[in-house]
Amino acid sequence: MLALPDNFDPVERGERARDFFLQGYNCCQAVLLAFADVLEADEDLLKTVGSGFGGGFARMREVCGSFSACTVLAGFMRPAVTPGMDERKANYALVQEMAAAFRERNGGSIVCGELLGLRGRGPEGPEPSARTEEFYRKRPCPEIIRNAAVIVAEKMKEAAL
Questions:
Q1: Model pLDDT for residues 112-135, shown as the tens digit of each residue
Q2: Which residues face 63 on adjacent strands?
Q3: How far is CA 155 from CA 30, 43, 78, 129, in A?
Q4: Of 1, 19, 68, 113, which one has the greatest count of Cβ atoms within 10 A?
Q5: Model confidence pLDDT, tens digit, residues 104-114
């Protein structure tokens, strides 16, 4: 079980994740970094693990990177490290609970292209979008990322009770 700090606050974790995104980290990295202290994990390792998940798997607009971070973090909360089915069932149940909460808070989807209204536009190249004022004005990403981190933090807090 993860040891949560005494002042652990889901809303603050959400703000922390959003701020990491606004600093330029991708959506997955931002959520992972918001929990580096709880995981007792090296930030560079989390940045590395999350690096390919931005833009819905490298701008392919598939599963949202912030939801991918929820899935990674579920592995720390309910690890499935042995071949047996019980651990896997518990992990999958947590991921499905987080997916339901994510959909509820973010317009009904966990898919990046749907969340951004980009479905049907064709493939995008690997070059990340420039983080300009226009980018942030058009994208719901900071709020989606905040919501993802809040969901994870709420689940962590529930598990600690």
A1: 999 999 877 766 889 888 888 888
A2: 111
A3: 18, 22, 11, 32
A4: 68
A5: 999 999 999 99
- The reply to whether 3 falls in a domain is no
Amino acid identity of 71?
T
For residue 39 the two structure tokens come to 């995981």
Residue 25 token pair: 């980290």
Amino acid at 25: Y
Helices in the chain by DSSP H: which ranges? 10-22, 27-33, 36-39, 43-50, 54-57, 65-77, 85-105, 112-115, 133-138, 141-160
Q: Is residue 148 part of a domain?
A: yes
Tokens 């651990």: give the residue.
87
Number of domains in the chain: 1
Domain range for 154 is 10-160
Q: Would residue 3 be called left, alpha or beta, if left means φ above 0 and alpha means ψ between -120 and 50 degrees?
A: beta
27 with 34: CB under 8 angstroms?
no
Closest CA to 56 of 143, 131, 144: 144
